[in-house]
Structures are given as structure tokens and as C-alpha cells.
Amino acid sequence: MWLVDAGGLALVIAWLMVALSFIILRKKRPEMRRPFRVRGGTSVGWIALLMSIGVVILYLPGMPSALVWPYEWIIIIAWAALGFVFYKWAMSKYGATNANTLMDQEVDRILQTEDELAIPTDEQAEKEVYNQ
Q1: Is pTM, for the whole model, over 0.70?
Q2: Total of domains in the chain
């Protein structure tokens, strides 16, 4: 049961990271093609971020869904430490500059695949929605 409870917190943190990434990408890369359009723009991301912070608070000590000390918190700390070790290993092996280059190559590969699959752009998708 400890692993399931700790995993629940990990899922909420992952959800928080997705919402944060959504907001950051909408600000830094507004021109990026997106096969799915979200009405409301970044406000949806902000709502998701606030909701995920609220759920994370429920896992803190003294709250109804608090993790059991020390067992479940040890699992969380071990996962975080393992993630930090993998991050440091990847940065030492590839470096930050190379990581950005690899990320750009992956984004280009995904966009090329979308072109091959004929996934519509935001403008095309919006026209299709309003023409129905």
C-alpha cells in the first residue's frame, strides 16, 4: 500500500509538471504547431497548475490523505534522489547544449511525422470546427 500511496503523489507531481510545461510552451513558443487546440489558452494551464498544487497539499502531514511517515516519504525521497542521479548522469554524458540540440531534433522529427500523417494546423482545425 505504501508504494501505491507514494505513487499517487508522484502522479500528481507529474500532472503539475505537465501543466507547468503547457504554460511555459505557450509563452516561449506560441508559433509551435499544436494538433490539439485548447480553448481558454494559458488560463486552462493555470487552473490545472493550481488544482495540482491543491492536491499535492493533501499529501502533506496533517492532511486527510497524508503520506505515512517515514515509509512513504522514504519512497518519495528515493525516487527524487534517483531522478537527480539520472539527470546528473545525462548532463555529464550529453551536456546541456547537446541536450537542447537533441530536443530540437526530436521536435523536428515529430513535426515531420505530423506532416506525413496530415495532421491539421490550428488554423485548419478551427476552420473545420466552424464549418460543420
Answers
A1: no
A2: 1
